[in-house]
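Sharing in case it's useful to others searching the archive later.

Someone asked me privately for the predicted structure of BTB domain-containing protein, so I'm posting the question and my answer publicly. Question first, with the sequence:
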Amino acid sequence: MDNNKLLPKLSQNLLEILNDEEYYDIIIEVGNDPYVKIFRAHMIILYYLSPYLRKIQSTNKNKSDGI
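And my answer, the predicted structure tokens:
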């Protein structure tokens, strides 16, 4: 498969992953009751997009409570 066909397919797959509410592996809660907003996310994507989160994750590798 050449790049002209591969990149659109990868982009479509990534959008499907980001919109999939079944296979998230992290929940981020923002705000205070009763105004809490919940974000479901994929840690692998956050890890690669944020050097800050990458640093936190690497220091918390052995902790069971995560970030």
